Amino acid sequence: MSISNFNMLSISIIIPTLNRPLALKSTIGSILLSKYLPLEIIVIDQSEKNIYEQNKLNLKKLNPNIEIIHHFVNFQSSTKARNLGINLSKGDILLFCDDDIEIDNLVLFKLVKIFYFDSNISLIGAYDYENNRIFNKSILPYFIGYNNLFKLNEGHINFSMRGVFPFYPKKELLKTNWAMGFFFALRREYLIKFNIYFDEKLSKYAYSEDLDFTYRYIQTLRKHNMRAYFYNKLKVFHKYTKEFRDQNYDKVFHYYTNRLYLIKKLKFHHFAYIHFYFFNLALLFKFILKPKQFFLHLKAIIRSLRCNFDEL
Fold first, then answer.
1. What is the mean pLDDT of the chain?
2. Is the pLDDT of residue 303 over 90?
3. Model pTM?
4. CATH second-level architecture of 3-238?
5. For residues 201 and 79, what is the distance between their CA atoms, to the nearest angstrom?
6. How many CB atoms lie under 10 A from the CB of residue 104?
7. Per-domain residue ranges of the chain
8. What is the 3 state secondary structure string of 122-172?
9. 3-class state of residue 42 by DSSP
10. In the Cβ-directed half-sphere of 14, how many Cα atoms lie within 13 Å?
11. Banded pLDDT at 312 (limits 50, 70, 90)
C-alpha cells in the first residue's frame, strides 16, 4: 500500500541533545529524507550556549517543510529533557530517539503503518543495525543464568537490570517488555492517561532510564491487553558518535548505581541483588588487561554497595 493511500497517525519525534552539533545535524537530515514525514521534531537542547547557537544555525540551513521545535534548557538531564518533549508534543505517536542515529527513508512509514493497522500495539522498539545489536548471538548467557532461558524469543530484562534482545528470531515482530532508548515509539494518549513519565531521579547520565520508562509503560498497557514488540524491519543505525562521549568515574558509577536503584524501585526478586553483583564482578575480567578501566569499574561497584541513592 502506498504512503498516500490512507490517512495515518501523526508522529512527534523527541530528541534530547548535549554538545553534539554534527551528530544532531546528521540525525535530523536523515529524518527529513523520509518518505513519510513527522508532524514535528522536538529538539531539547542541553548544550553549552555557543553549541546551541551552532545547532540553531545548522537546523535553519536544513530548511525543513515541517515544524522543528528547538528548545534550549539550562539543565543536563536526559529524563527531564524527554519529559519536557512529551509535554510539548502534539502527535498521536511519540518517537524517542538519540541525537546520533540514521534511518532509511521507509522507517517512519513502516512504524506508523503498524500502529495504524493494529490498535492493540502499545510500543515498537527497533534494533541497532550499525553495531549488529540485532539479536543475541550466543546461547551461553542463557545457560549460565544471565538471560532467561524460557524467553529465548522475547525481549526481556535480566536480574541485573540489563535489557536482553531475542535470540535469532524468525518472526518480524517479537514480544518484549523493554525497548532501547536510541529508537522506540509509543502511543501518546496512554502516557497522558496513565501519567507515565521518565523518572527524573535518574539524572545526569541516566543509564537505564529508557529501560525503566518502557518497562513501566508496557506493564501498565499489558493490563489492558495491549502488546509491545521489537520490529526487525526497522533499520536504524546507532552511530555512537565520539562527540562529547568519554568514560569517566561519574559515568561508570551511575552505570551501576542506577541499575541497583531500579531493582529496588521495580521490586525485582531479592535474588536480583546477588545476580547483580555476581555477574558484574565476573564482567570485570573483560578489563583484566586494562588496569585503569578495571579499577575504575571495581571502585564504582564497591561504592554502589553503600549507596543510599541520594547520590544519584
1. 87
2. no
3. 0.91
4. Alpha-Beta Complex (3.90)
5. 8
6. 16
7. 3-238, 249-305
8. EEEEEEECCCCECCECCCHHHHCCCCCHHHCCCEEECCCCCEECCECCCCC
9. strand
10. 24
11. very low
Q: Give the residue among 277, 155, 265, 259 at the shortest CA–CA distance from 205.
A: 259
Cell of 173: 515482530
DSSP 197-257: ---TTS-TT-TTHHHHHHHHHHHHHHTTT-EEEEEEEEEEEE---STT----HHHHHHHHH
CA distance 213 to 203: 13
Compute the radius of gyration of the chain from its Cα atoms.
Answer: 19
Length in residues, the chain: 312
The pLDDT of residue 65 is above 60: yes
Containing 46, the helix (H) or strand (E) segment is: none
Nearest to 205 by CA among 83, 79, 303: 79
In this structure, what C-alpha cell is assigned to residue 159?
536480574
Nearest residue to 142 (alpha-carbon basis) of 126, 160, 158, 163 = 158
- Residue keyed to cell 546551541: 52
